[in-house]
Structures are given as C-alpha cells and as structure tokens.
Amino acid sequence: MAMAPSPSLVQVYTSPAAVAVWEWQDGLGTWHPYSATVCSFIEQQFVQQKGQRFGLGSLAHSIPLGQADPSLAPYIIDLPSWTQFRQDTGTMRAVRRHLFPQHSAPGRGVVWEWLSDDGSWTAYEASVCDYLEQQVARGN
C-alpha cells in the first residue's frame, strides 16, 4: 500500500541532486531505513566528518544515535567499519548510505510498508519503495 509522505523519510538530508537514506541490516539480511530525523542527523555527522582520516576505535568517527532519537540511545554508528553497535548487548549490524535522486520515491518521501503478523507496519527498504513507486507510475 502506498503511503502518503510520512515522517519516516520525508525530512532526509538533501543535496541539490540527491537525498541520502541511511539503513541498517537485520539478522536476516533485510535493510530497514532509519527515520527521517535519524537519517538527517547521521548524514549531517557524516558530511562533517567526511574527508577526515578514520582511525580504528576513534570516537570522533562514531555517531551516537540517541542524540537524534532518545529511543536509540544504546546505538552508535561506527563510520570506519560501517556498523551499528548496540552498547547494552554488543550486537553489531551493517549500515549503509544510499543516495537517491530527488525525484525518486525516497527523495519525495514516499514510503511503502507491509503489515506484519503482529499488526505493525514495517517500511520496505528504500530501493524497494523506489521500485514499487516506479511500477505504479507505469501502471503495473
């Protein structure tokens, strides 16, 4: 089901040509986009640190997600290793940054979601949202 632009991707940091969407990978290999607020925060931190030399374990190259969303306080993104670290459990997950044209579904804030068995809505990864939106635009 196509959803109207929702807070999950609408306010993502934009450049003149692209929108950056940050996602984390679960244990099954599925990518999940961070909320717009968190994506914007990560992107701002990434841009500020871009070009600096990354050293292993350098706190200067870590992004504490709790600063963007208090519910994510246990999570830190380590830029040199492109991982999300959960401090209370030690769980590490891959993260990625995907740039989309502003005219794409993620660039316009379009999010596709599916209804899980527990009754909650879960966003598809950004590239799937873009593909689904393209298919709808073509009448498929």
UniProtKB/TrEMBL annotation:
Pathway: Protein modification; protein ubiquitination. Its main location: cytoplasm. Keywords: Cytoplasm, Metal-binding, Transferase, Zinc, Zinc-finger. The keyword Plastid does not apply. It catalyses: S-ubiquitinyl-[E2 ubiquitin-conjugating enzyme]-L-cysteine + [acceptor protein]-L-lysine = [E2 ubiquitin-conjugating enzyme]-L-cysteine + N(6)-ubiquitinyl-[acceptor protein]-L-lysine. PANTHER family: DELTEX-RELATED. This is E3 ubiquitin-protein ligase. It comes from Homo sapiens (Human). The lineage of its organism: Eukaryota, Metazoa, Chordata, Craniata, Vertebrata. The gene is DTX2.
